[in-house]
Design brief:
Layout: H1 2-23, E1 26-31, H2 39-54, E2 59-64, H3 72-81, E3 86-90, H4 102-105, H5 113-120, H6 123-133, E4 137-143, E5 148-152, E6 167-170, H7 174-182, E7 186-189, H8 195-200, E8 206-209, H9 211-216, E9 225-232, E10 236-241, H10 242-246, H11 250-284, E11 288-290, H12 294-299, H13 302-308, H14 312-323
Parallel strand pairs: 1-2, 1-3, 6-7, 9-11
Antiparallel strand pairs: 3-10, 4-10, 5-8, 5-9
Helix pairs in contact: 2-11
């Protein structure tokens, strides 16, 4: 009888341990500089919901929006070192680390958002994904960030001549610094979270970004002149620490990849709606939208390409991008 009781207790304990193991959950942290409700934040949250559902709760994703874990430069290092597992960040800050990421950051390379989608969803996008692995990262998805344009507190910009002498905040990327210099203005690389106060206090005259960022960061309050020059159509990148990804089973890796792919469609839908909403909001608040003659801006970019597209691999990529119809 004692033996039977011991056996029963042992079986119950084993079953309890197995149940505990089965219900154990691995929580992955993801960073984003944008506020709660922003399309990229919602897309990563949607990714997390799909992962949780498709792994029967074995994995969950916590999204830290509003730069809670730091600005982009800091969180890039965190995800590369494995301090955090996931990160949604602009492509441009990787230009000095992953040379292939230079191509999507080049001004006036993409003809439209549709052109960018075809490029990033195809072989060129896959080539860039492979290159990121050398930096210890796995690219799970490319998200939309629309077109970036200049805005400032001083005056409307209708031509390249209007750019002369103005000070603009740019992403921490040499391409962006050189792009602004080629237009006769002065570039100041600066964390995203410092831009509002820098414009307000006159440290800079303005910045460059898309309508949703211009809106949600409230830059329209301090820089009323928005020039729709659309110099870059720069995709965002959603990355995972390579070592963390490698720890997943092959089945779970496929789940993560498919969840990320599904989140792209969600993000693009949210993005299109947000662009329209944000433009209407800033115009209602008094922002003045001007549309300059882009050809002068395009012509001014020759030295930027001459400096940054010297590698044969990058030259071929630029040709391939332009050939995509």
């Amino acid at each position: 009888m004692r033996i039977l009781v011991k056996l029963t207790a042992g079986l119950l304990l084993a079953a309890s341990c197995m149940a505990g193991a089965a219900s154990a959950q691995t929580v992955l942290r993801s960073s984003d500089t944008h506020p709660d409700g922003y399309p990229t934040v919602e897309a990563v949250e949607y990714f997390g919901e799909l992962v949780k559902e498709r792994t029967a709760g074995r994995y969950a994703v916590e999204v830290y929006h509003s730069a809670q874990l730091g600005e982009e430069k800091d969180t890039i290092e965190q995800v590369r070192s494995g301090v955090i597992e996931l990160n949604r960040v602009s492509m441009a800050p990787f230009n000095g680390t992953v040379k292939e990421s230079i191509v999507p950051a080049l001004p006036y390379l993409f003809r439209s958002e549709e052109h960018m989608h075809k490029v990033m969803d195809g072989a060129i996008g896959d080539q860039i994904k492979t290159a990121f692995e050398g930096a210890g990262l796995v690219v799970l998805a490319y998200y939309d960030a629309g077109s970036r344009s200049f805005y400032n507190k001083q005056k409307p910009i209708t031509s390249v001549a209007d750019m002369k002498g103005l000070k603009f905040r740019v992403i921490q990327s040499d391409i962006f610094v050189d792009m602004v210099a080629a237009l006769g203005a002065n570039a100041t690389p600066m964390p995203y979270g410092e831009v509002y106060s820098a414009i307000e206090t006159g440290v800079i005259d303005g910045a460059e970004n898309n309508f949703p960022s211009y809106d949600t960061a409230k830059h329209f309050e301090v820089a009323k002149n928005f020039s729709l020059d659309e110099h870059t159509i720069l995709p965002e990148v959603f990355v995972m620490n390579k070592a963390a990804f490698a720890k997943l089973t092959p089945e779970d890796q496929e789940i993560f990849k498919q969840a990320a792919k599904d989140s792209v469609a969600k993000q693009r839908e949210l993005w299109a709606a947000k662009v329209s909403e944000s433009r209407a909001k800033v115009e209602a608040a008094g922002a003045k939208i001007s549309t300059p003659d882009k050809q002068g801006f395009i012509d001014a970019m020759k030295p930027v390409y001459e400096k940054h597209v010297t590698d044969p691999v990058l030259k071929k990529m630029v040709e391939d991008v332009r050939a995509v119809q």
